[in-house]
Amino acid sequence: MSKTSILSALSQSASDVDDARYTAEHACRDVASEILKQVEPDGIELLLFHTSTLFDLDVVASKMTTLFPNVNVVGCTSAGEFNKNGYGTEKLLAVAFLKNAFSIATALVPQLGEVNFDEAHDIASNLRRTLQGREKRYDTEQHFVISVLDGLTRHEEHFLETFATAFGNIPHLGGSAGDDLKLEATYVFYDGAFHRDAAVLLLVGTCNPFSVFSIDHINSPVSKLVVTHADPESRTVYEINGEPAAQYYASLLGMKTEALTPDVFSMFPLAVMVGGKYFIRSIQKVDLTTNAITFYCAVDIGIILTFIQLGDCIEALESKLDALHEQLGEPEFVYACDCFLRRLEIQQGNNDHEIRRLQQKYHVAGFNAYGEHIHSVHLNQTFTGVYFGTR
Questions:
Q1: How far apart are CA 180 and CA 368, in angstroms?
Q2: What backbone phi and psi angles, to 5 degrees, belong to 224?
Q3: For 254, phi and psi rounded to 5 degrees?
Q4: This prediction's pTM
Q5: Which residues make Cβ contacts (< 8 Å) with residue 2, sequence separation at least 6?
Q6: CA–CA gap between residue 358 and residue 84 (Å, rounded)
Q7: What is the DSSP string of 73-98?
Q8: Measured between alpha carbons, how far is residue 344 from residues 45, 140, 172, 180, 281 in Å?
Q9: pLDDT the model gives residue 1
Q10: Which residue ranges in the chain fall short of pLDDT 70?
Q11: 215 CB contacts (<8 Å, ≥6 apart)?
Q12: Tally of domains in the chain
């Protein structure tokens, strides 16, 4: 049996050209087999998974529940999956947190746009009471929160702000579910079923040394733009500097609007300044008919968007992980919510081998998200995670 406290397994791709018959059932069985070779189900405190929407989600729901009997299984759909084997897409990743080092309480939060402060405090209090009632208890400073939520609801900011005071000073990280860049429907998984317009919260207690962190690779501002016409509810910008938004953005890049794709968005992001620091507002899509730009994060009329020059994505990540190594010692595991635009940027630069080197060195696993959560803030184009040192 395993002497570690966290295990991960990554399936093959749903569209693997070498095996067109690789189905959701195969993927679930493969990750379950790899994890259960190292630990019995009754040794698992919680199983967290991230899956491509190319798999049949009904089959995923059924199989992940039956393959891990009497285990709390939660998860979400994704825009990419990764572990020590490097970035992948159209796969299923499973992460098992073991009872020898973890105690975890979970909750489903439905109707994200309607949750209020009283409900948030009740949910957080119930999670705390659940952990306090366990045989194995951990001090407050040994707790952190993970959230995964429907990545297309446009309620991330409201959700995070509402729960910010409910959890107080407990560190909070997470990510917004994806759907393989289809932008159709994203889901979270809880209590045997997939849900939309919902979030799953995990209150985690552990004896492992850990640190919750988030990094970007913003280098310097280039030029400033003013949003002059927008719909904040849908996060859509219609005009920038009084010009049709998509057309204006494309013209600054010397491109036609038809050429604007996620690959372009990943390399030429826009940002806003909050509290003296730039935060990227990633572009979700452009509408060629209306010349509108829709964002993954909140926008409004009058805000100033800044073209950002990016630094070295991998260098920034390695520097942070090296610093955490110095602080917490040898890594046992790094669980991460990594923006899908970072993956696109790395792959465009043909740097898959470099990111795989870091993923192997630091035992990194997680999923590519439509947005990342750190404490009470919804972010884009970041690597947000939790570093676990060895005990």
A1: 9
A2: -110, 145
A3: 70, 35
A4: 0.94
A5: 38, 39, 43, 98
A6: 8
A7: EEEEE-S-EEETTEEESS-EEEEEEE
A8: 33, 38, 26, 12, 16
A9: 40
A10: 1-2, 17-20
A11: 316, 317, 320, 382, 383, 384
A12: 2
> Residue 232 class from Cβ within 10 Å (0-12 exposed, 13-18 middle, 19+ buried)?
middle
- Give me the numbers of helices (H) and strands (E) for the chain, helices first please: 9, 26
Question: Among 268, 287, 310, which residue terminates a domain?
Answer: 310
Q: Give every CB contact of residue 388 below 8 A, 6+ residues apart in sequence.
A: 5, 6, 206, 208, 209, 210, 328, 331, 332, 333, 334, 335
Owner of token pair 């009058």: 302
- Report CA dihedral (353, 354, 355, 358) to the nearest 10 degrees: 120
pLDDT of residue 10: 97
pLDDT 10s digits, 18-66: 666 899 999 999 999 999 999 999 999 999 999 999 999 999 999 999 9
On whether residue 1 sits in a domain, the answer given is no
Do 26 and 100 reside in the same domain of the chain?
A: yes
Q: How do residues 152-165 score in pLDDT, each as one tens digit? A: 999 999 999 999 99
DSSP-assigned beta bridge partners for residue 327:
none
Domain range spanning residue 111? 6-215+315-389
Residue 293: beta bridge partners?
A: 237, 286
Full DSSP string of 227-247: EEEEETTTTEEEEETTEEHHH
- Whether 51 and 181 share a structural domain: yes
Does one domain contain both 16 and 131?
yes
Tell me, what's the pLDDT at 20?
67
How confident is the model at residue 21, as a pLDDT?
83
Distances in whole angstroms, Cα of residue 385 to Cα of each of 41, 56, 57, 291, 346: 25, 28, 26, 35, 18
Q: From 199, 215, 213, 186, select the one nearest 296 (Cα to Cα).
A: 186
Amino acid at 100: N
Any domain includes 29: yes
pLDDT for the residue 185: 98
CA distance 71 to 69: 5
Any idea what the Cα angle at residue 256 is, between residues 252 and 261, rounded to 5°? 90
Task: Spell out the residues 6+ positions from residue 233 whose beta carbon is closer than 8 angstroms to its own.
Answer: 154
